[in-house]
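Hi R.,

Here's the chain you asked about this morning:
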Amino acid sequence: METSLHQQLKDRYAGTKGETEVRLGRYRIDAVVNRELVEIQHGSLGAIRDKIRELLDEHKVRVVKPIVASKVLVKRTEKGGPVVSRRRSPKRGTLLDLFDELVHFTRVFPHRRLTLEVLLVDIEEYRYPGHGKRRRWRRADHEREDQHLVAVKETHRFRTAKDLWKLAPAGLPRPFHTGHLAEQLGVGRWVAQRMAYCFREMDIVRQVGKSGNALLYEPVRRRRKSA
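And here is the predicted structure, written out as tokens:
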């Protein structure tokens, strides 16, 4: 079932000049604005990979990926019932979470007709007991009723591989490994490994050797076209 968050984002992008829920061949498009197709994807980018690849054959496409920067959990007594509590979730999303999705999307992005737009959003998530209101709340003992957009904190647009490379720290050694990347960004090694994978698949970096068990990378230098 579509969430309020999804509907709010569709309306936000369609504005007063666009359309929502447009049928195009065998696909339903979230919004169409000035002949650009807008797809809002809360789940995995890999789930829409084939759809987007096919649409790009003839259309400009904007894929909107919301990342939850902060979330307020709102508990109800039952579905649609009174609110009994509100608390802020300790989980925080960041822009680098994008690479969790991009590892499944590198065969689509980048593309000359594709814009990847990442939103860092604040939301409210409404929940109710999953096994009846008499049961005590447990960590996973709930059902999600809906999600509401509170605010769009940041918007980041990526059209080229070079745009993504700007997320890497400027002071990386040459060559570098994922340990350098993780240390300078202050993230876990697994995050850096996903970034390196995406950079390599998009031909931003190339593997140049190993240091122990660590793969070494260098940025790919593009030759300037002669005048």
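One quick note: Strands lie at 19-24, 27-33, 36-40, 60-76, 83-88, 114-129, 142-158, 205-211, 214-219.

Cheers,
M.
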